[in-house]
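Protocol step 4 of 6: record predicted structures for both targets in the notebook before any analysis. Target 1:
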Amino acid sequence: VQLQACGGGAVQAGGSLRLSCAASGFTFGNYAMGWYRQAPGKERKLIAGIGVGGGTYYADSVKGRFTISRDNAKNTLYLQMNSLKPEDTAVYYCAKGRGAMWYAGYDYWGQGTQVTVSS
């Protein structure tokens, strides 16, 4: 399993970024996928998940601002991040689900991409 995230960077508050995660080594369309983030000094947390059937989950901290999506033909996961806030600053990781549903847990993580939001 390989998960390669990209698209991070530095942006001002209120701006937008789109993260992508290219997946390989497994049948992408058969597994839920998710995005985690880890801020300095804090634990890594799931912020968005998407199941095989398209069902989604968002943490309260990003609900209404972030959108998770997937393109099974391209084996790629996306995270559209709008109205970014300084508290969104973190390393963002894509993750492969253990099964088809976003709530079934995750077993592989990519290398992470840094997102920095300045005020």
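Target 2:
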Amino acid sequence: QVQVVESGGGLAQPGGSLRLSCAASGFTFREYTMRWARQAPGKAFEWVSGIASDGKEARNAPLVKGRFIISRDNAKNMLYLEMNNLEPDDTALYYCGKSKNRADWHEFEYPGQGTQVTVSS
């Protein structure tokens, strides 16, 4: 059974930092492209950052490029998102996603409950 558990969210001030974590189980983590996505109230679900199965390639959405860093530890089945220089518009529920087809980058599923990030002074 595929499971992901997101953690690390919370309240941060504008310009601050947070580190999100995702613990994965129920599938061969090292074989799958992984992604972070977010959902803000009244806004569309949007992808934030993705990373190849071997960790050698990362892709960031334009809105977070230069501020967020995605990484993974395949030995621990963990995915991370280092979020720096946070802005109020980063406020959202953040989800950890896995590719539906191993190393593919096109379709993802988000089986977890998400972790809430709130950026406010």
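Step 5 preliminary note on target 2. The two ends are 40 Å apart (CA to CA). The chain has a mean pLDDT of 96.
Proceed to step 6 after PI sign-off.
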